[in-house]
Design a protein that fits this description.
The chain is an alpha/beta fold and 331 residues long. It has helices at residues 14-29, 33-41, 61-68, 98-110, 128-145, 164-179, 198-208, 221-225, 229-239, 255-258, 268-271, 282-291, 310-330; strands at residues 46-49, 72-76, 114-119, 149-152, 185-189, 213-218, 243-247, 250-251, 272-273, 298-300.
Length: 331
């Protein structure tokens, strides 16, 4: 959806990676309550997807992040590990060379920024072996850079939906084997008609049964799917301990349509909006996250920017990030 709206033009140290792994395990595997309590007290990084960074008009990724108030960013990564959203006027970044990785690590650390997640638009049922090989390489890179989460798609393209679940379970088990003995976790985004379905998500998580598979929780996608507003907070609470990463956005539906079950995607392009104008109560979201030991980032994904003049878009993102920072401190 974003492609039609926008033209897209410190990394964590080992201690953060270790705490991420331990905290994730505490919720899923029943580790001592002290670990979960420590996890709940962790300060969450707040930022946005890298596709918004160039809106700030600065010369490099890190200056754009600082101009927007972002402490972290989610970085889009292609199948061959290219990163179009990372940019610098005097050198190129690369995930495939030691010099390229060193440049990312050093520049991020120098600017007090971090990469909170990698985003992969995976197509497992169309090119499984290529995707698994890409995942092997990316998990290694994530470990080197201290990136704790890799966002993935798990929904059918080539396999009929009714036959997709066994394939999805087997594939995600393979991903978890790749991530074994690392602090890296895969985050299935609740996305589209498959993984927004909580019945499918439950069967997937139960079938895989690994702490290395979590959720990239998109706070608005369940609402987009048709779930009534009042039911969203129970869904958030159910999956908060599994969440490894977020996409924070919102929708402002007419009052009469908020607490009824709507057709999937109903009038989304018309009613999507910044989080400070939407129906989703992010104060309540933050409280739910804290109570359920969420340990990840708060990452803006605003698909409403096409509603605003280009000159105003950076300000919208800046205001959303500031709102999340304020709520995270106060809640």
């Amino acid at each position: 959806m974003l492609a039609g709206m926008l033209n897209s033009h410190s990394l964590s140290r080992r201690s953060f990676l270790l705490s991420t792994s331990l905290a994730a395990s505490s919720a899923i595997l029943g580790f001592p309550a002290a670990l979960a309590a420590e996890r709940a007290q962790t300060e969450w990084p707040v930022g946005c997807r890298d596709i918004y960074l160039n809106l700030a008009g600065q010369s490099d990724t890190w200056s754009c992040m600082k101009a927007l108030g972002a402490g972290c960013t989610e970085v889009l990564v292609s199948l061959d590990l290219k990163t179009p959203g990372l940019f610098h006027p005097t050198h190129k970044y690369s995930l495939t060379t030691e010099d390229g990785l060193r440049a990312i690590k050093e520049d991020a650390a120098e600017n007090g920024c971090r990469i909170s997640a990698f985003l992969r638009g995976t197509r497992f049922d169309e090119r499984l072996e290529q995707e698994l090989e890409s995942a092997r390489r990316l998990v290694k890179v994530a470990g080197q850079l201290g990136v704790p989460a890799i966002r993935i798609d798990v929904w059918p393209r080539a396999i009929p939906e009714g036959k997709f679940l066994p394939f999805a379970i087997k594939t995600c088990k393979q991903l978890c084997e790749i991530a074994q003995d690392t602090g890296v976790r895969f985050g299935v985004e609740n996305h589209g008609h498959t993984t927004n379905n909580t019945a499918f998500l439950d069967k997937l998580f139960d079938g895989v049964d690994s702490p290395h598979l979590g959720l990239t929780m998109d706070l608005a996608n369940f609402y987009w799917f048709g779930d009534p507003l009042d039911e969203l907070y129970g869904i958030y609470a159910k999956y908060a301990s599994r969440a490894v990463h977020t996409h924070c956005k919102s929708i402002h539906y007419p009052a009469a349509r908020r607490n009824v079950r709507r057709q999937m995607g109903w009038e989304y392009g018309k009613y999507c909006c910044p989080i400070y104008e939407g129906d989703i109560d992010y104060h309540q979201v933050i409280r739910i996250f804290r109570e359920n030991g969420f340990h990840g980032d708060l990452c803006i994904e605003d698909e409403s920017l096409g509603h605003f003049p280009e000159a105003e878009r950076a300000g919208v993102i800046r205001r959303e990030i500031a709102m999340l920072r304020s709520l995270a401190r106060e809640t």
